[in-house]
């Protein structure tokens, strides 16, 4: 009687298991015992994406537009024409030469810093500005008028030491007032300056 009862219970359990659906082999590990079910669930579960992982990157359209606008304003140089003309006349530098130097040096951008510490529109070093009589801080050379004033004074001396020629002036301005021999860098610089000077001459 006991054997029949056990057999009946086993059959009933088997039928219940079949009715509950197929049993996946990976849901029980005999070596892990009861923990096998939990381990497999953890391994097979898919980690949900969070809001941060699916969030789109913000658009850079506004930044690009701002850069384009800044570049357009820089290339024109009209914002500094009055200051350039004022100090060029004051120190005896041809206005076209002054414009061309600023164009090549900084493209009319007042906040540019060179690889050797040159600052601003005319890319003048603080030590050079102090040689020209400047007594302020390096930060002060970012001011357009201050930069043009002392940069133009240095350019005027280069113009005088260079014999008034374009390339002679550029050599002294680019390589230093003591420079005597044209070098490839200053030569390329002079070529660019000549191109910009020619573009400023009104056509007849």
From TrEMBL:
Keyword terms: Signal
Residues in Transglycosylase SLT domain copies: 83-181
Signal sequence extent: 1-25
UniProt feature, compositional bias: Polar residues: 47-57
Residue ranges, annotated region (Disordered): 42-68
Pfam families: SLT
PANTHER family associated with the record: MEMBRANE-BOUND LYTIC MUREIN TRANSGLYCOSYLASE C, SOLUBLE LYTIC MUREIN TRANSGLYCOSYLASE-RELATED
Family: Belongs to the virb1 family.
Protein name as catalogued: Soluble lytic murein transglycosylase-like protein
Organism encoding this protein: Aquamicrobium lusatiense
Lineage of the organism: Bacteria, Pseudomonadati, Pseudomonadota, Alphaproteobacteria, Hyphomicrobiales
């Amino acid at each position: 009687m006991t054997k029949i009862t056990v057999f009946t219970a086993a059959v009933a359990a088997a039928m219940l298991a079949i009715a509950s659906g197929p049993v996946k082999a990976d849901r029980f590990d005999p070596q892990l015992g009861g923990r096998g079910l939990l381990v497999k669930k953890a391994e097979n579960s898919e980690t949900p994406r969070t809001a941060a992982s699916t969030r789109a990157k913000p658009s850079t359209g506004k930044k690009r537009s701002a850069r384009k606008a800044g570049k357009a304003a820089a290339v024109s140089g009209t914002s500094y024409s009055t200051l350039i003309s004022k100090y060029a006349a004051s120190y005896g530098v041809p206005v076209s030469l002054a414009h061309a130097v600023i164009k090549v040096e900084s493209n009319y951008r007042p906040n540019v810093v060179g690889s050797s510490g040159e600052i601003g529109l005319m890319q003048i070093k603080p030590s050079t500005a102090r040689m020209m009589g400047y007594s302020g801080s390096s930060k002060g050379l970012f001011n357009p008028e201050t930069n043009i004033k002392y940069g133009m004074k240095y350019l005027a001396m280069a113009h005088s030491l260079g014999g008034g020629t374009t390339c002679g002036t550029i050599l002294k301005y680019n390589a230093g007032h003591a420079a005597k021999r044209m070098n490839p860098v200053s030569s390329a610089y002079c070529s660019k300056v000549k191109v910009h000077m020619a573009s400023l001459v009104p056509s007849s």
